[in-house]
């Protein structure tokens, strides 16, 4: 059962330039959009989720399970990059939730929709206020990364497009890496070719 002490932050405000002109978030794999899959799995794996969306996104068009206006933060300057978007979202969480509402924040990338719910539950079980938890597959570090509440002030200082890597580098003693058998923790779908491979994988497993 998913731990209730964590919040999944589903990052879906990027430009996705490598994917072309199509809105990558709405590209289908196994009959469901990348974003819908990522949102569904994040909510199931962590118990509660917040979507970091683009200004002007229509929730009806995004077609996400159990989404409410309270479950969405619209990034004010999404063009500044992933790190900046994380900082904006964490600042929003700081302002709108009680300080001790969550022990950790799981930064979930919307273009990694094939991660198993069981994998997310394993990571959630390891989450804690004073730890950074990261999955790996065959020695390769993956996502999502869980940042304990102790590190949120550092997340709020992020800038640019490097995500939370700077926080991991600044706190190596607090990082717990969990080796998993789920290759999807290292599989982001950022090109049409990668989408085709993902579709084949879903068809193979169905």
Helix percentage: 25-40%
For the record, give the distance between the C-alpha atoms at the N and C termini, rounded to a whole number. 24 Å
Low-confidence stretches: none
CATH domain fold name: Spore Coat Polysaccharide Biosynthesis Protein SpsA, Chain A
> How large is the count of helical segments?
7
What characterizes the major β-sheet? Answer: 8 strands, mixed
- Write down the domain tally: 1
**Overall pLDDT level:** 91
Name the CATH superfamily assignment. Answer: Spore Coat Polysaccharide Biosynthesis Protein SpsA, Chain A
List keywords for this structure.
206 residues, alpha/beta, Spore Coat Polysaccharide Biosynthesis Protein SpsA, Chain A, eight-stranded mixed beta sheet, two-stranded antiparallel sheet, Nucleotidyltransferase family protein, Nucleotide-diphossugar_trans, magnesium, MobA-like_NTP_Trfase
């Amino acid at each position: 059962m998913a731990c209730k002490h964590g919040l999944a932050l589903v990052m879906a405000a990027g430009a996705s330039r490598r994917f072309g002109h199509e809105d990558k978030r709405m590209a289908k794999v196994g009959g469901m959009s990348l974003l819908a899959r990522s949102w569904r799995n994040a909510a199931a794996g962590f118990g509660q989720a917040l979507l970091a969306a683009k200004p002007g996104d229509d929730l009806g068009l995004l077609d996400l399970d159990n989404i409410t206006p309270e479950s969405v933060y619209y990034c004010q300057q999404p063009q500044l990059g992933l790190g900046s978007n994380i900082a904006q979202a964490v600042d929003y969480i700081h302002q709108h939730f009680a300080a001790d509402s969550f022990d950790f924040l799981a930064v979930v990338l919307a273009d990694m929709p094939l991660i198993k719910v069981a994998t997310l539950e394993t990571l959630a079980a390891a989450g804690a206020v004073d730890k950074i938890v990261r999955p790996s597959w065959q020695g390769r570090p993956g996502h999502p990364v869980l940042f304990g509440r102790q590190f949120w002030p550092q997340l709020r200082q992020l800038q640019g497009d490097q995500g939370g890597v700077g926080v991991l580098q600044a706190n190596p003693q607090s990082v717990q890496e969990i080796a998993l058998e789920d290759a999807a923790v290292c599989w982001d779908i950022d090109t049409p070719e990668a989408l085709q491979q993902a579709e084949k994988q879903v068809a193979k497993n169905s």
